[in-house]
Amino acid sequence: MERLRKLGIEAIRRVALGSTVLGTGGGGDPYVGRLLAEKAVREHGEVALLDPSEVPADACVFLCGMMGAPAVIVEKLPSGNEAVAAMEALARVLGRRVTHISSLEAGGINSMIPIAAAARTGLPLIDADGMGRAFPELQMLLPTLEGIRATPMSLVDEKGNTLVIDAVSNQAAEGFARVATVQMGASATMAFYPMKGSQVATALVPHSISTAHRIGEALLLARQKRLDPIAEMARQLDGREIFRGKIVDVLRRTTAGFVRGEAVVTGLEQWSGQELSLDFQNEFLVARSAAGVLVSTPDLICVADSEAGEPITTEALRYGQRVSVLAGPCYWRWRTPEGLAVVGPQAFGYQHSYVPLQS
Amino acid sequence: MRIGIDVGGTNTDAVLMQGLRVVAALKTATSADILTGIRVAIGQLLAASQVEPRRISSVTIGTTHFTNAVVSAIGLAPTAAIRLSLPSGSGVPPMSDWPPALTAAVGPNIYEVSGGYEFDGRPIAELDFAQLSRIAADIGQRRIRSIALTCVFSPLKADSELAAREFFQRELPGIRISMSHEIGRVGLLERENATIINAALLELAEVATDAFRDSLRDSGIAAPLYLSQNDGTLMEVERARRFPVTTFSSGPTNSMRGAALLSGLKDCVVIDIGGTTCDIGVLSGGFPRQATTHVEIGGVRTNFRMPDLLSLGIGGGSLVDLDDLSVGPRSVGFRLPKDALVFGGATLTATDVAVAAGAVELGDRQKVAHIDRERARAVLNRISERIAAAVDRVQTSREPLPVVLVGGGSILVDRGLPGLGTIHRPPNAGVANAVGAAIAQVGAEVDRMLTLDGKNRRAELDAVKAEAVQRVVASGADASTVELVEIDEVPVAYLPGDCVRVRAKAVGDLKIQQEAPV
């Protein structure tokens, strides 16, 4: 397949659609982000997409994206200037000019924010991200495994408030940023994980934007040709449909600023008579049947409407929905002991150890 | 006695009801001007039942008139879309994702102003009246006739929208204004879209409701007129003039609610077979289960509550191929009374097959005498199998729900549906939509973000519920019949302080004077 070198309006639409799959139930609805990126590209031109191997060793790379409550981001929309302001603030602290931008996560609205930022600054975007999916906290990025610090980082809001955080660990940075985000009105934009071009090859998940684009393209094609969207999604995730059924119960509770919860799905068709439970902390974390854990973080769990093939976010889960549960393997480095220490089941407070998804 | 009227694209259906009993029912063709059709329907209804117009206590109309205006982009007023949000929001301005034809039909006249609130009610910025003043001058100059006001987090705090409305009413006397907090819930773009559409429909709503009232007056009826809304509740005509957008998609809702009444079932699957489609939905507690995805109207994304329907391309007018036993999705639609074989036409429709199979007596049987009876039966079996499979998909509990069959096309299912048990076929099933309009209830919804930290959760929730109940009574419900039908509590992600979003919905019967027996 021909490499994706430029991101224009059509490509953005495909990436946005694909990012709802990689969002694994979290990351927020990319709709607002897509409109933001489309406007930026219409006004400033298409975004150049660079393969990680093309980034010069002495490049100054910033990751950028939003932190906050998805329910707030759909009401208080960005001014569009936040990401640029955040990168300028971080550059001031470091005394260096940013030369390349990358995404913090491939799923949800944060797949779109760096595209808008790249269009507005004219800087190239690296075809990569920090997670290869979506995770709920800011230390849950691949650079953490490489010993790269998230801070100094900048946090800005649409009003122009700018905060710089320098924390002793990436975990500590998460705590400070979370509190500051609430004060900023529950949504904020950050520039963080400043790194050198030479670090990109190992510290980022490569090709995640073109992966999202490929998934979006495949889903659009499936809709056009009236193919089974679920089968197509499974193929694109390099995974499979692990369950199909109806949601019969959804429990949610807020703990420490996060929504944790559980959804129970009762089986249909070949899964008739069985039950599946899905745990989530904004993203889906664990899928369990009577036999035990079927899939768990960091592998990808995606829930989609069985008919339309539309991915469903954890916020939108409702009693009675007819859903397909899909699972796909995570980026290989998350499966290493160091990776699992950051995003494995135990990092989320589970007792069970990680069982890799069998293909 | 109450009259319910459903004005569809093909037929105008009308029923006269005494309490919950259907006294008279009829179908007439929808007229191009809509009003003639309504007048004819009322006239025939009163004549058939020999009821005097003065005995009618209320009339409810369900209509697609406003939906059609948006879909066809005809009859919309030039409208100013004013957003109180800066410095937030400018990254995604108003009408960002609208289809060009609809954008051109209302403007675009886009204004973004300093203002808006945070999720906890703090101002993002103070409302800037100097900016509003410049906008007022521009609106006057450009002869814009309607204004849509949308403020960030106005469903939580409406002060700025109210202040801006007061300002524009003073500066531009007679201008029509819609405020977003009265129209939608949290989710700025969808609420703003609905508000702009509503504002653009205000003129048309006045013309149409005047005409509805005229057609009632011409029929000698002095009773109050109501319009039915998308959630199965009704609104007074004065309210419909201010919120025409809430009539969208009332047709399928009315159909399902009518089916509930006619069958006496509150929890069931409703199959409504019309001329072109078969719509399948689930009634829960007498109200349709709502769709969870975003609903597009005329290509514009909104967050209206719409019934969650599964539509199959099967109806009385569906084209049939006897060779491979296929049915639909193509249909002769409103030309069915002319084009079907049994009515002297030249097109083989599902209705013809039903007559050939002996499922129903309709039209001229001889015209389908050449069709093999077994073959016709096989087509009907195929239809039943497809519908039964779809019903299985919409069922949400392990216990199968009872099934109610309504609509003019229900003749296609003359025997059972495989694997589904008893099928209820209530009398007057063909006009279930008009029955649904006649029995619509009054409803109100409250949508709030609550910070529960350190507060009494029960008390906070009770306050929201009480507000929903108060709103229903204020909208004309009989207080003794009001009940809370829905309470939905969703924690808001990533916020400390135990923040939740609560939605409460209450409904009640319309307060009307005691009815004398027939």
Quaternary structure annotation: heterodimer
Number of helices of chain B: 13
CATH fold-level topology of the domain at 71-206 in chain B:
Rossmann fold
Beta-strand content of chain A: 25-35%
CATH class placement of the domain at 71-206 in chain B: Alpha Beta
Q: Beta fraction of the residues of chain B?
A: 15-25%
Protein model, in words:
The complex is a heterodimer of chains A (359) and B (518). Chain A has 359 residues and is an alpha+beta fold. Chain A folds into 2 domains: 6-206, CV3147-like domain (CV3147-like fold, 3-Layer(aba) Sandwich), CATH 3.40.1610.10; 233-348, Beta Barrel (CV3147-like), CATH 2.40.390. Chain A contains 11 helices and 16 strands. Chain A has helices at residues 9-22, 31-44, 70-73, 82-94, 113-121, 142-145, 170-183, 200-203, 208-224, 229-236, 337-343; strands spanning 6-7, 47-50, 60-68, 100-103, 125-129, 153-156, 162-165, 187-196, 205-206, 240-255, 258-267, 275-281, 283-289, 292-296, 300-305, 322-328. In chain A, strands 1, 2, 3, 4, 5, 6, 7, 8 and 9 form a 9-stranded mixed beta sheet that branches. In chain A, helix 1 crosses helix 9 (208-224). The mean pLDDT of chain A is 92. Chain B is built from 13 helices and 23 strands. Chain B has helices at residues 35-49, 65-72, 100-106, 129-141, 159-171, 188-218, 237-242, 250-263, 336-339, 350-356, 373-394, 432-438, 457-474; strands spanning 2-7, 11-18, 21-29, 58-63, 79-86, 109-114, 146-151, 176-179, 225-228, 234-236, 268-273, 278-284, 287-288, 295-297, 300-302, 310-312, 318-321, 326-331, 403-406, 423-424, 442-451, 483-491, 499-508. In chain B, the strands form 6 sheets. A 6-stranded mixed beta sheet of chain B has the order 3-2-1-4-9-10, sandwiched between helices. In chain B, strands 11, 12, 13, 16, 19 and 20 form a 6-stranded mixed beta sheet that branches. A 4-stranded parallel beta sheet of chain B has the order 6-5-7-8, sandwiched between helices. In chain B, a hairpin with a 5-residue loop joins strand 9 (225-228) and strand 10. In chain B, helix 2 (65-72) crosses helix 6 (188-218) and helix 8 (250-263) crosses helix 12 (432-438). Mean pLDDT of chain B is 86; it is low at 514-518. The chains are: A alpha+beta (359), B alpha/beta (518). Chains A and B meet through helix 2, helix 3, helix 7, strand 10 and strand 11 of A and strand 23 of B.
